[in-house]
Amino acid sequence: MKWMDWFIVILLLFIGLSCLSMSMTLTTDENSMYMFIVSLVKICLWVAVPSLLLGVFYLWIKKKKRD
């Protein structure tokens, strides 16, 4: 993939995570920037941790097949 493709993918991911965080913030009683940041971090962690684990597992399998 070219760098422009990666840029578009990252931009769409950021927009999607922002929309999820904004809807989470609007459904709670507290409408503040702090709540937005907290919900964004929670959503990012729920996305990043499984992605990181799958990536490490994939690299481990790939390395094992090479040996």
Name the beta content range: under 5%
Number of helices: 2
The run of helices and strands is: HH
Q: In terms of structural class, how would the helical and strand content be classed?
A: mainly alpha
Count of spatially separate domains? 1
Overall 3D shape: elongated
**Main beta-sheet strand count, sense and barrel state:** none
Low-pLDDT segments: none
* β-strand number: 0
Rounded radius of gyration (Å):
16 Å
Please name the defining characteristics of this protein.
67 residues; mainly alpha; 2 helices
Describe this structure in words.
The protein is an all-alpha fold and 67 residues long. It has one domain (3-66). The chain is built from two helices and no strands. Helix 1 (3-27) crosses helix 2. It is elongated and about 55 Å long. The chain starts with a helix and ends with a helix. 3% of the residues are buried. The model has no long low-confidence stretch (mean pLDDT 84).
